[in-house]
Design brief:
The chain is an alpha+beta fold. Helix content is 44%, strand content 15%. Strands 6, 7, 8, 9, 10 and 11 form a six-stranded mixed beta sheet that branches. It has a five-stranded antiparallel beta sheet with strand order 2-1-5-4-3, with helices on both faces. A hairpin with a 2-residue loop joins β4 and β5. About 2% of the residues have low confidence.
């Protein structure tokens, strides 16, 4: 039934040329059409009420009282509800959803107050009224379930066929709205009790079999990473110590969420092993860690080295110091002769020539891959 209602709402939006939302008589959201800026005759097709309704799956008691004050519970024909600029509310057209004389809900059109829509002879109005009546018959037959955006996000990230889930998310946020994903890796798996994602309009879901939390965040500007960084910081403040976060590159719409999740979760993994990036990292700043993250693991030639934690750390610090003995010895708090001895042992255990660039690259990638694997374990 939910799909039937969604098709009805999409058709009403098409024939009247305005974003449409269907709510039951208790103002619980049942279906909504996609919102694309510039696709309708009015430039401002999202207001505070519609945003809260879609993201919160319903309207507040204050909004309900305001709209009912205009007589929508008694209306049997299309009714105009005026705007309230101070409250951020746009004018909208209400189509009562009735069956056998009983009220079952409301179809809302954010049409910008167009008179061509409300004129009794307006093209499409009779069709829209008929569709509202059909919605009433469906609701009278049985109340459908409502789209759950957290479930939709989880379905997309789980890798299951999720065309409908992407459609629900795009409809809620806007098909061309810039979005990013923030991956949170709690020190203890799972969502904390009472968890709610910080950030306006954010949607969260458990991912990676409970080892991570995904937070989908709509952005005003895809070039501005500050809202995502602020969300990551606020979320980490509410998670156990040792938790990390990663931020994906922003994209328009939700069609590339799996790619964004790979970016965000990789950044969160790296933040757990590289103190320079902890506790939150973005995909854009990972550098060579991007290549390390796709490796199946360290080269087998490094097995003996990786069994020795002191020599492994020495290799990592020396390589991260661009091969500078002075900087590496200072960071390791050892005498330079001790560092030289350890480097000779590394060469013996691995069979690598540390003066050779290719061998140093193999060693560097392998040590980093081992660090990631240990953190994932």
């Amino acid at each position: 039934m939910r799909d039937d209602l969604q098709d009805l709402v999409d058709e009403v939006s098409r024939v009247l040329g305005a974003p449409a939302t269907l709510e039951d008589r208790d103002f619980t959201l049942l279906a909504f059409c996609a919102h694309e800026p510039g696709a309708t005759p009015t430039d401002a097709t999202m207001d505070a009420v519609r945003t809260r309704s879609i993201l919160g799956r319903g309207s507040t008691p204050e909004v309900r009282a305001r709209f009912e004050g205009y007589g929508i519970t008694r209306a049997t024909a299309p009714l105009r509800v005026p705007a309230d600029p101070a409250a951020g509310i746009l004018t909208r057209l209400c189509l009562p959803v009735r069956a056998d004389g009983r009220l079952h809900g409301y179809l809302w059109l954010l049409d910008g107050g167009r008179t061509d829509v409300t004129d009794p002879g307006a093209p499409g109005l009779a069709r829209a009224v008929a569709l509202a009546a059909e919605a009433g018959r469906l609701l009278a037959a049985g109340r459908p379930g409502t789209p759950d955006l957290a479930t939709a996000l989880g379905a997309v990230l789980a890798g299951a066929p999720a065309e409908r889930a992407v459609r629900d998310l795009d409809a809620a946020l806007g098909a061309r709205t810039p979005v990013t994903l923030v991956a949170l890796r709690p020190a203890t798996p799972g969502l904390p009790a009472g968890w709610r994602p910080p950030g306006a309009g954010a949607i969260s879901a458990v991912a990676d079999d409970g080892r991570a939390i995904a937070v989908l965040l709509p952005l005003a500007d895809h070039r501005d990473p500050r809202p995502a960084s602020a969300l990551a910081a606020a979320a980490l403040a509410r998670l156990p110590a040792g938790s990390t976060a990663g931020v994906a590159t922003a994209r328009r719409g939700c069609g590339e969420l799996p790619v964004q999740w790979s970016e965000a979760s990789t950044a969160a993994r790296v933040a757990a092993v590289d103190p320079r990036l902890a506790p939150a990292a973005s995909w854009a700043e990972l550098g060579a860690w991007r290549q390390v993250a796709v490796l199946p693991g360290p080269d087998p030639a490094l097995t003996a080295l990786l069994a020795d934690p002191v020599l492994t750390e020495t290799a990592a610090v020396w390589l991260d110091s661009a091969g500078s003995p002075q900087r590496a010895a200072a960071q390791l708090c050892v005498h330079r002769q001790t560092l030289y001895y350890r480097l000779s042992r590394i060469a013996q255990l691995t069979g690598l020539d540390l003066a050779d660039g290719a061998d140093r690259l193999l060693l560097h990638l392998g040590v980093r891959a081992a660090r990631l694997a240990a953190a994932d374990g």
